# Entry
Amino acid sequence: MSEDRSVPPLRIAVFGAGSIGCRLGGALAAVADVTLIGRPDAMAELDRTGLTLTGPGDRRVHVRPATAVDASAAAGADYVLVTVKSADTAGAARALAPHLDARTTVISFQNGLHNAELLAAALPDRQVLAGMVPYNVVRTGAAAFHQGTDGRLMLERTAAAEQPAAPEQPPAGRAPARRSSPAERFAELARAAGLPVELRDDMPQVQAAKLLLNLNNAVNALSGRPLREQLGSRPYRLVLARCQREGLAALRAAGLAPARLGPVPAGWMPAVLGLPDGLFRRLAAASLRVDAQARSSMWEDLQRGRRTEIGELQGEVLALAERHGLAAPANRRLLELVRAAESAPAPPSWSGPELLAALDDQEV
# Structure
Protein backbone atom coordinates (compact mmCIF):
# COMPACT_ATOMS: atom_id res chain seq x y z
CA MET A 1 0.00 0.00 0.00
CA SER A 2 1.45 3.40 -0.93
CA GLU A 3 2.17 6.01 1.70
CA ASP A 4 -0.51 8.65 2.22
CA ARG A 5 1.47 11.86 1.66
CA SER A 6 -1.57 14.01 2.46
CA VAL A 7 -1.09 13.29 6.17
CA PRO A 8 1.58 15.62 7.62
CA PRO A 9 4.24 14.05 9.88
CA LEU A 10 3.78 14.29 13.62
CA ARG A 11 5.50 17.25 15.24
CA ILE A 12 7.82 16.55 18.16
CA ALA A 13 9.63 19.12 20.30
CA VAL A 14 12.45 18.04 22.60
CA PHE A 15 12.78 20.49 25.48
CA GLY A 16 16.23 20.28 27.06
CA ALA A 17 18.22 18.90 24.14
CA GLY A 18 21.27 17.55 25.92
CA SER A 19 22.67 14.04 25.58
CA ILE A 20 19.38 12.14 26.04
CA GLY A 21 17.28 14.72 24.23
CA CYS A 22 19.59 14.75 21.21
CA ARG A 23 19.68 10.93 21.11
CA LEU A 24 15.89 10.64 21.12
CA GLY A 25 15.20 13.63 18.92
CA GLY A 26 17.92 12.72 16.44
CA ALA A 27 16.48 9.23 15.98
CA LEU A 28 12.89 10.46 15.72
CA ALA A 29 13.86 13.00 13.05
CA ALA A 30 13.79 10.15 10.53
CA VAL A 31 10.03 9.70 10.97
CA ALA A 32 8.72 12.98 12.40
CA ASP A 33 9.09 16.75 12.24
CA VAL A 34 11.49 17.25 15.19
CA THR A 35 12.66 20.48 16.82
CA LEU A 36 15.42 20.35 19.43
CA ILE A 37 15.17 23.13 22.02
CA GLY A 38 18.31 23.76 24.03
CA ARG A 39 21.08 26.13 25.03
CA PRO A 40 22.06 28.73 22.39
CA ASP A 41 25.67 27.58 22.10
CA ALA A 42 24.72 23.91 21.75
CA MET A 43 22.00 24.62 19.19
CA ALA A 44 24.33 26.87 17.19
CA GLU A 45 26.83 24.01 16.96
CA LEU A 46 24.10 21.64 15.79
CA ASP A 47 23.13 24.15 13.10
CA ARG A 48 26.74 24.37 11.93
CA THR A 49 27.65 20.69 11.84
CA GLY A 50 24.48 18.63 12.17
CA LEU A 51 23.95 15.97 14.81
CA THR A 52 26.01 12.77 14.89
CA LEU A 53 24.74 9.75 16.82
CA THR A 54 26.84 6.62 17.38
CA GLY A 55 26.67 3.24 19.14
CA PRO A 56 26.23 0.78 20.46
CA GLY A 57 28.26 -1.30 18.04
CA ASP A 58 28.92 0.30 14.66
CA ARG A 59 25.74 2.35 14.40
CA ARG A 60 26.32 5.88 13.09
CA VAL A 61 23.67 8.41 12.06
CA HIS A 62 24.06 12.00 10.91
CA VAL A 63 20.96 14.22 10.86
CA ARG A 64 20.10 17.92 10.77
CA PRO A 65 16.96 18.45 12.86
CA ALA A 66 15.49 21.89 13.38
CA THR A 67 16.74 23.73 16.46
CA ALA A 68 15.44 26.47 18.72
CA VAL A 69 16.37 28.16 21.99
CA ASP A 70 12.94 29.24 23.23
CA ALA A 71 9.99 27.23 24.53
CA SER A 72 7.72 28.94 22.00
CA ALA A 73 9.13 26.52 19.40
CA ALA A 74 7.05 23.80 21.08
CA ALA A 75 3.78 25.49 20.04
CA GLY A 76 1.65 23.19 17.93
CA ALA A 77 3.68 20.08 18.73
CA ASP A 78 1.89 16.75 18.99
CA TYR A 79 4.45 15.57 21.55
CA VAL A 80 6.86 17.44 23.79
CA LEU A 81 9.65 15.31 25.24
CA VAL A 82 11.04 16.86 28.42
CA THR A 83 14.65 15.85 28.99
CA VAL A 84 15.95 18.59 31.29
CA LYS A 85 17.64 17.72 34.56
CA SER A 86 15.22 17.07 37.38
CA ALA A 87 16.08 20.31 39.18
CA ASP A 88 14.92 22.21 36.09
CA THR A 89 11.54 20.48 35.73
CA ALA A 90 9.46 23.21 37.37
CA GLY A 91 11.13 25.87 35.23
CA ALA A 92 10.54 23.79 32.10
CA ALA A 93 6.84 23.53 32.90
CA ARG A 94 6.54 27.29 33.43
CA ALA A 95 8.32 27.98 30.14
CA LEU A 96 6.20 25.53 28.16
CA ALA A 97 2.79 26.28 29.69
CA PRO A 98 1.89 29.35 27.55
CA HIS A 99 2.70 27.53 24.31
CA LEU A 100 1.04 24.11 24.62
CA ASP A 101 -2.56 23.39 23.73
CA ALA A 102 -4.77 20.62 25.04
CA ARG A 103 -3.92 18.20 22.24
CA THR A 104 -0.20 18.15 23.08
CA THR A 105 1.08 15.13 24.98
CA VAL A 106 4.04 15.78 27.26
CA ILE A 107 6.42 12.91 28.01
CA SER A 108 8.98 13.08 30.80
CA PHE A 109 12.10 11.12 29.84
CA GLN A 110 13.99 12.10 32.99
CA ASN A 111 15.68 10.49 35.96
CA GLY A 112 14.00 10.55 39.36
CA LEU A 113 10.63 9.60 40.77
CA HIS A 114 8.53 12.77 40.60
CA ASN A 115 9.09 14.67 37.36
CA ALA A 116 5.93 13.53 35.57
CA GLU A 117 3.89 14.51 38.64
CA LEU A 118 5.51 17.96 38.72
CA LEU A 119 4.81 18.50 35.04
CA ALA A 120 1.21 17.31 35.36
CA ALA A 121 0.58 19.66 38.29
CA ALA A 122 1.98 22.63 36.34
CA LEU A 123 0.28 21.67 33.05
CA PRO A 124 -3.22 20.66 34.21
CA ASP A 125 -4.89 20.77 30.79
CA ARG A 126 -2.35 18.53 29.04
CA GLN A 127 -1.76 14.82 29.15
CA VAL A 128 1.57 14.03 30.82
CA LEU A 129 3.16 10.59 30.57
CA ALA A 130 6.08 9.18 32.52
CA GLY A 131 8.86 7.60 30.49
CA MET A 132 12.16 5.93 31.22
CA VAL A 133 15.39 5.83 29.19
CA PRO A 134 17.42 2.71 30.03
CA TYR A 135 20.69 3.55 28.34
CA ASN A 136 23.67 5.82 28.87
CA VAL A 137 24.36 8.58 26.35
CA VAL A 138 27.52 10.68 26.54
CA ARG A 139 28.65 13.66 24.50
CA THR A 140 31.76 12.76 22.49
CA GLY A 141 32.03 15.99 20.52
CA ALA A 142 30.44 19.41 20.19
CA ALA A 143 27.45 17.89 18.37
CA ALA A 144 28.16 14.17 18.71
CA PHE A 145 26.56 11.75 21.15
CA HIS A 146 27.35 8.10 21.86
CA GLN A 147 24.89 5.56 23.27
CA GLY A 148 27.02 3.16 25.28
CA THR A 149 24.41 0.65 26.44
CA ASP A 150 21.27 -0.82 24.92
CA GLY A 151 17.69 -1.34 26.05
CA ARG A 152 14.07 -0.38 25.49
CA LEU A 153 12.42 2.90 26.31
CA MET A 154 9.57 2.44 28.75
CA LEU A 155 6.45 4.55 28.60
CA GLU A 156 3.34 4.84 30.72
CA ARG A 157 0.38 3.22 29.00
CA THR A 158 -2.84 5.20 28.68
CA ALA A 159 -6.42 4.16 27.97
CA ALA A 160 -7.41 4.10 24.31
CA ALA A 161 -9.10 7.20 22.98
CA GLU A 162 -12.85 7.12 22.55
CA GLN A 163 -14.01 5.56 19.32
CA PRO A 164 -15.41 8.05 16.82
CA ALA A 165 -19.03 7.76 15.83
CA ALA A 166 -19.27 5.66 12.69
CA PRO A 167 -21.69 6.84 10.02
CA GLU A 168 -22.17 3.26 8.85
CA GLN A 169 -22.17 -0.11 10.52
CA PRO A 170 -18.91 -2.02 10.06
CA PRO A 171 -18.98 -5.17 7.93
CA ALA A 172 -20.63 -8.17 9.57
CA GLY A 173 -18.34 -9.88 12.04
CA ARG A 174 -15.91 -6.95 12.28
CA ALA A 175 -15.68 -4.69 15.34
CA PRO A 176 -15.42 -0.90 14.95
CA ALA A 177 -11.82 0.30 14.68
CA ARG A 178 -10.27 1.49 17.93
CA ARG A 179 -8.28 4.69 17.95
CA SER A 180 -4.78 4.45 19.38
CA SER A 181 -3.92 6.27 22.59
CA PRO A 182 -1.18 8.94 22.59
CA ALA A 183 1.19 6.46 24.23
CA GLU A 184 0.49 3.85 21.57
CA ARG A 185 0.97 6.35 18.75
CA PHE A 186 4.28 7.53 20.16
CA ALA A 187 5.47 3.95 20.68
CA GLU A 188 4.63 3.10 17.06
CA LEU A 189 6.51 6.17 15.84
CA ALA A 190 9.54 5.47 18.03
CA ARG A 191 9.74 1.87 16.88
CA ALA A 192 9.69 3.04 13.27
CA ALA A 193 12.69 5.22 14.15
CA GLY A 194 14.59 2.26 15.60
CA LEU A 195 13.84 3.08 19.23
CA PRO A 196 12.33 0.00 20.92
CA VAL A 197 9.54 0.95 23.34
CA GLU A 198 7.67 -1.04 25.97
CA LEU A 199 4.35 0.28 27.26
CA ARG A 200 3.98 -0.26 31.01
CA ASP A 201 1.17 -0.12 33.53
CA ASP A 202 3.60 0.10 36.48
CA MET A 203 5.72 3.18 35.82
CA PRO A 204 6.19 4.07 39.53
CA GLN A 205 7.75 0.63 40.04
CA VAL A 206 9.81 1.04 36.85
CA GLN A 207 11.09 4.40 38.04
CA ALA A 208 11.97 2.91 41.42
CA ALA A 209 14.02 0.20 39.72
CA LYS A 210 15.74 2.80 37.52
CA LEU A 211 16.55 4.87 40.61
CA LEU A 212 18.39 1.90 42.10
CA LEU A 213 20.37 1.43 38.87
CA ASN A 214 21.12 5.16 38.68
CA LEU A 215 22.77 5.07 42.10
CA ASN A 216 25.80 3.87 40.15
CA ASN A 217 25.99 7.25 38.38
CA ALA A 218 27.71 8.75 41.40
CA VAL A 219 30.09 5.80 41.79
CA ASN A 220 31.07 6.04 38.14
CA ALA A 221 31.46 9.82 38.26
CA LEU A 222 33.72 9.67 41.33
CA SER A 223 35.79 6.85 39.83
CA GLY A 224 36.60 8.77 36.66
CA ARG A 225 36.62 5.45 34.79
CA PRO A 226 34.54 3.99 31.95
CA LEU A 227 31.49 2.06 33.12
CA ARG A 228 32.79 -1.30 31.96
CA GLU A 229 36.04 -0.88 33.92
CA GLN A 230 34.29 0.51 36.99
CA LEU A 231 31.64 -2.21 37.14
CA GLY A 232 34.30 -4.84 36.60
CA SER A 233 35.99 -3.91 39.90
CA ARG A 234 34.51 -5.42 43.06
CA PRO A 235 35.33 -2.51 45.46
CA TYR A 236 33.29 -0.11 43.32
CA ARG A 237 30.47 -2.65 43.16
CA LEU A 238 30.51 -2.99 46.95
CA VAL A 239 29.98 0.77 47.21
CA LEU A 240 27.01 0.50 44.83
CA ALA A 241 25.67 -2.53 46.73
CA ARG A 242 25.56 -0.52 49.97
CA CYS A 243 23.71 2.29 48.24
CA GLN A 244 21.22 -0.13 46.72
CA ARG A 245 20.56 -1.92 50.00
CA GLU A 246 19.71 1.41 51.62
CA GLY A 247 17.57 2.29 48.58
CA LEU A 248 15.69 -1.00 48.72
CA ALA A 249 14.97 -0.50 52.43
CA ALA A 250 13.72 3.06 51.86
CA LEU A 251 11.50 2.02 48.94
CA ARG A 252 10.13 -0.90 50.94
CA ALA A 253 9.25 1.46 53.79
CA ALA A 254 7.48 3.71 51.29
CA GLY A 255 5.48 0.75 49.96
CA LEU A 256 7.11 0.86 46.52
CA ALA A 257 8.38 -2.44 45.09
CA PRO A 258 10.86 -1.95 42.20
CA ALA A 259 9.90 -3.56 38.91
CA ARG A 260 12.06 -6.29 37.44
CA LEU A 261 13.80 -4.72 34.45
CA GLY A 262 16.24 -7.50 33.58
CA PRO A 263 17.20 -11.07 34.37
CA VAL A 264 18.24 -10.18 37.93
CA PRO A 265 15.45 -8.97 40.30
CA ALA A 266 16.23 -5.64 41.96
CA GLY A 267 16.27 -7.23 45.41
CA TRP A 268 19.04 -9.63 44.39
CA MET A 269 21.37 -7.05 42.87
CA PRO A 270 23.32 -6.08 46.04
CA ALA A 271 24.27 -9.72 46.57
CA VAL A 272 25.20 -10.15 42.90
CA LEU A 273 27.30 -6.98 43.00
CA GLY A 274 29.31 -8.41 45.89
CA LEU A 275 30.38 -11.54 44.02
CA PRO A 276 34.03 -12.02 42.97
CA ASP A 277 34.84 -10.37 39.67
CA GLY A 278 34.93 -13.52 37.52
CA LEU A 279 31.67 -14.90 38.86
CA PHE A 280 30.01 -11.49 38.64
CA ARG A 281 30.94 -11.13 34.99
CA ARG A 282 29.51 -14.53 34.16
CA LEU A 283 26.24 -14.01 36.03
CA ALA A 284 25.62 -10.36 35.16
CA ALA A 285 26.87 -10.22 31.57
CA ALA A 286 23.36 -10.29 30.11
CA SER A 287 22.11 -7.36 32.17
CA LEU A 288 25.24 -5.21 32.17
CA ARG A 289 26.22 -5.01 28.52
CA VAL A 290 28.23 -1.81 28.10
CA ASP A 291 30.72 -0.77 25.47
CA ALA A 292 34.17 0.63 26.11
CA GLN A 293 33.08 4.28 25.72
CA ALA A 294 30.10 4.18 28.09
CA ARG A 295 30.11 6.64 30.98
CA SER A 296 27.43 7.93 33.31
CA SER A 297 25.80 11.29 32.68
CA MET A 298 27.04 12.39 36.11
CA TRP A 299 30.63 11.72 35.04
CA GLU A 300 30.07 14.00 32.05
CA ASP A 301 28.56 16.70 34.29
CA LEU A 302 31.63 16.71 36.55
CA GLN A 303 33.97 16.74 33.57
CA ARG A 304 32.18 19.80 32.19
CA GLY A 305 31.79 21.59 35.52
CA ARG A 306 28.00 21.30 35.53
CA ARG A 307 25.53 20.71 38.32
CA THR A 308 24.68 17.02 38.72
CA GLU A 309 21.46 15.16 39.58
CA ILE A 310 22.90 13.74 42.81
CA GLY A 311 20.04 15.34 44.76
CA GLU A 312 17.46 13.39 42.73
CA LEU A 313 19.37 10.09 43.05
CA GLN A 314 21.30 9.54 46.30
CA GLY A 315 19.40 12.52 47.68
CA GLU A 316 16.07 10.85 46.89
CA VAL A 317 17.10 7.71 48.79
CA LEU A 318 18.30 9.80 51.71
CA ALA A 319 15.03 11.77 51.85
CA LEU A 320 12.91 8.60 51.66
CA ALA A 321 14.98 6.93 54.35
CA GLU A 322 14.76 9.89 56.71
CA ARG A 323 11.02 10.16 56.12
CA HIS A 324 10.61 6.61 57.40
CA GLY A 325 13.12 6.75 60.25
CA LEU A 326 15.89 4.88 58.43
CA ALA A 327 19.57 5.63 58.00
CA ALA A 328 21.29 5.81 54.61
CA PRO A 329 24.95 6.56 55.40
CA ALA A 330 26.38 5.26 52.12
CA ASN A 331 24.07 7.44 50.03
CA ARG A 332 24.69 10.41 52.32
CA ARG A 333 28.46 10.04 51.91
CA LEU A 334 28.31 9.80 48.12
CA LEU A 335 26.04 12.83 48.00
CA GLU A 336 28.64 14.76 50.03
CA LEU A 337 31.50 13.61 47.80
CA VAL A 338 29.71 14.55 44.58
CA ARG A 339 28.68 17.93 45.96
CA ALA A 340 32.34 18.55 46.82
CA ALA A 341 33.40 17.42 43.35
CA GLU A 342 30.96 19.85 41.71
CA SER A 343 33.02 22.76 43.02
CA ALA A 344 36.46 21.12 42.87
CA PRO A 345 39.10 22.51 40.45
CA ALA A 346 39.54 19.11 38.76
CA PRO A 347 37.27 16.07 38.23
CA PRO A 348 37.67 13.28 40.83
CA SER A 349 39.41 9.94 40.36
CA TRP A 350 38.74 7.77 43.40
CA SER A 351 40.00 4.21 43.39
CA GLY A 352 37.56 1.51 44.47
CA PRO A 353 39.31 0.83 47.80
CA GLU A 354 39.51 4.57 48.53
CA LEU A 355 35.81 5.06 47.89
CA LEU A 356 34.89 2.04 49.97
CA ALA A 357 37.09 3.32 52.80
CA ALA A 358 35.35 6.71 52.62
CA LEU A 359 32.07 4.94 53.35
CA ASP A 360 33.63 2.96 56.20
CA ASP A 361 35.07 6.13 57.73
CA GLN A 362 31.62 7.70 57.91
CA GLU A 363 30.09 4.68 59.55
CA VAL A 364 32.67 4.58 62.39
Summary: The CA atoms of residues 215 and 313 lie 6 Å apart. The two ends are 71 Å apart (CA to CA).
